[in-house]
C-alpha cells in the first residue's frame, strides 16, 4: 500500500512538472522569437525601425511590472489560480499578436503577454508547495533553465518558422502550447494550501511600476536618443528618485508589496546582484551574437550566416542548457548552489572570452556557444534555487518575481550598453567595425566574472542531509550560512 501511494504521488508530481514546463517554455519562447525577425515584422506592419523596437520594449515593460505583482497575488490568492490566469493572459496576447495587422495592435498584444511574466515565480512556488523536498532543487533548477533554453531556442527557431510559414506563426505556435498548459493547470495541478492573507498595496505597486518604466525606457532608448540626452538623463534621475520613494514607502507599509526585510537578507540581495550582472551578459549575448554571425565576411569578420544558419551555430547553447538543467539540481544538492553558481559564472566568462578573442572559425563559435550553455545553465538554475531556499514559503512568488525582474533590468542595461559599444564606430558600409563586437564581448565577460565574484558573498546553502525531513523551514544561524538540517531548510543570515 505504501508503495502504491508513493507511486501515485510521484506520478502527480511528474504531471504537474510537465504542465509547468510547457507553460514556462511557451513564455520563454515569446521572449525571444520576435528578436531575429524584427525587420520582417517592421515591413509587414509598415512601420519604422525605431518604432518596431516597441514590440520588444512593450513586452519587457509589461513583464517587469506584472511579474512581482502576479507573484505576490499567487502567494495571497493561490498559485495555481494565478498560474492559470497568467497563462490566459499569455494566450489572449498571443492570439491578438498573431492576428495583428498594425503596430499599435501588436504593441497592445505584447503588453497583455507581459502579464504572463508571473508564470515563472508561480511555477517555483507551486514546486516548493507540492513537490517532495528532496526533488525541489532539481525541479526548480530545470524550470529556471527552461527560461534560458526557451529564449535561446526562440532565436534558433525564428528563421525556420518564418521561412516555412510566416511571422504570424511566431505567436500561433506558443499559443497552442499555452492553451495546452492552461487546460493542464486548470484540471491537473493541485491548488496549494499555503496562502498568505493580505492585499495588494496599490500605491507601492504604482511606484514600482513608475521607476521600472522610467529606468527601462531610458536604457532601452539610450542607444537611439544618446546616453547624454536630456530625455535619458531625466528618466534615469526620475527612476532613482521614485525608486528611493518606493523603498521608503514599502519599508513603512503595514502591507508591503515587496518586503524590504526580505530583500535585505544577505542570500537574497547578493543573489539579486548576481542576477543583475548575469542578465547583463545573457540577454545582450542573445541579442547581438546572431547579428555578429550574420555580418557578411566582406566586412573583415563575421560569417555571412542566414538567420537559420546563425540559429544552428547558436543551437549548442540551448542544448547544453537543457542537459545541464537535468543535472543542476543534483549538483546543487551535492556541492551547494553557491558553488554551482560560481563555477557556472566562471565557465561563462571563459566562453565569452573565446567569443571576444577567437571568433574567426566556425568551430570556435560552436565551442563558445556550448560553453555558454553549460555556464549559463548552471548559474541560472542555482540562482533560482538560492532564492527559493532563502525566503519563507509564503514569499516564494514575490521573491522569485523580483529576482526575475532584476535579471530583466540587467538584460536591458546590457543590451543598451552593448548596442552603444558595437555601433560606436562603423565601416563605410554602415556595418560596425570588428573591434566593437570584441569590446562588447569583453564587457559581457567582465559582467559574468563579476557575477562569480558576487557569488562568493552569497551565504552557502548546505546539502540535503540523508534521510532528513525538510518539509518545513526552520531558521538558524551557522556562521552566517544557509544550511539544511533535519526538520527544515535553515535560512541564516548574520544580519538577522
Automatic annotation (TrEMBL):
Keyword Transmembrane: yes
Domain called Major facilitator superfamily (MFS) profile: residue spans: 16-463
Membrane topology qualifier: Multi-pass membrane protein
Superkingdom field: Bacteria
Gene3D superfamilies: MFS general substrate transporter like domains, Multidrug resistance protein D
InterPro entries named in the record: MFS, MFS_dom, MFS_trans_sf
UniProt keyword annotations, A-Z: Cell membrane, Membrane, Transmembrane, Transmembrane helix, Transport
Protein's name in the database: MFS transporter
Pfam families in the cross-refs: MFS_1
Regions crossing the membrane: 12-30, 50-70, 82-101, 107-127, 139-163, 169-188, 200-219, 225-249, 269-289, 301-327, 339-359, 365-388, 409-428, 440-461
UniProt-annotated location(s): Cell membrane
Classification via PANTHER family: BLR6921 PROTEIN, MAJOR FACILITATOR SUPERFAMILY MULTIDRUG TRANSPORTER MFSC
Principal location listed in the UniProt entry: membrane
Lineage: Bacteria, Bacillati, Actinomycetota, Actinomycetes, Micrococcales
Organism whose genome encodes this protein: Frondihabitans cladoniiphilus
